[in-house]
């Protein structure tokens, strides 16, 4: 798709559901080698990507996707970092991971995914939201710093932590409405269920 055509396309961020499994697999398989290595903190084979995508939507935590023109182009994950997580409460510490396809960067998709995941984490009992990335992952470092994460270098990896405010009754209500809207969007506009190429 030409760069000019991409400019006019808006993105929609919503929660991903088990019915989105094919879209998630197709997305991971489309990532260029560098983006895939940044997302998984190292090289991952196609078989490894397929295995991960198969279980990603049923693992503990939640996933959010950014759709452009009906296709999944960015993906964010929120995963608990300790025992005792449930469907609605992840515990005080959770980890966020993101990736956006190279051709769709610098359009606010990463920022929208980060904001949506931080809001979701806040309403699932998370106090500290952690991010990890390779030291060369400039987009992730800029995103974490922009949202106020304290960054620490650990060899070739960088870890950041963002302290989240406690939810309010209004923010909890708003999150419930957003989740219901996400489900409605998923049911109304499913991505084409083609098998991956």
TrEMBL record:
Q: What PROSITE patterns does the record tag this protein with?
A: GNAT
Q: Where is the N-acetyltransferase domain?
A: 11-169
> What protein name does the entry list?
GCN5-related N-acetyltransferase
Q: Which organism is it from?
A: Methylobacterium oryzae CBMB20
Instruction: Please give the InterPro entries that the UniProt record associates with this protein.
Output: Acyl_CoA_acyltransferase, GNAT_dom
* A Pfam family the protein falls into: Acetyltransf_1
One GO molecular function term?
Answer: acyltransferase activity, transferring groups other than amino-acyl groups
């Amino acid at each position: 798709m030409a760069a000019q055509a991409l400019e006019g396309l808006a993105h929609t961020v919503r929660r991903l559901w088990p019915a989105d499994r094919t879209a998630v697999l197709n997305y991971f398989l489309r990532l260029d080698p560098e983006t895939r290595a940044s997302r998984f903190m190292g090289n991952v084979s196609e078989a490894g990507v397929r295995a991960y995508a198969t279980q990603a939507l049923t693992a503990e935590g939640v996933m959010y996707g950014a759709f452009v023109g009906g296709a999944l182009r960015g993906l964010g994950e929120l995963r608990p970092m300790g025992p005792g997580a449930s469907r609605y409460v992840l515990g005080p510490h959770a980890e966020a991971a993101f990736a956006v396809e190279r051709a769709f960067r610098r359009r606010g998709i990463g920022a929208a995914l980060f904001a949506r995941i931080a809001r979701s984490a806040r309403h699932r009992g998370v106090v500290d939201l952690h991010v990890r990335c390779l030291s060369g992952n400039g987009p992730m470092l800029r995103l974490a710093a922009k949202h106020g994460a304290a960054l620490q270098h650990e060899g070739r990896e960088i870890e950041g932590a963002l302290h989240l405010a406690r939810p309010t009754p209004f923010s909890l209500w708003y999150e419930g409405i957003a989740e219901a809207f996400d489900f409605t969007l998923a049911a109304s506009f499913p991505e084409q269920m083609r098998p991956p190429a």
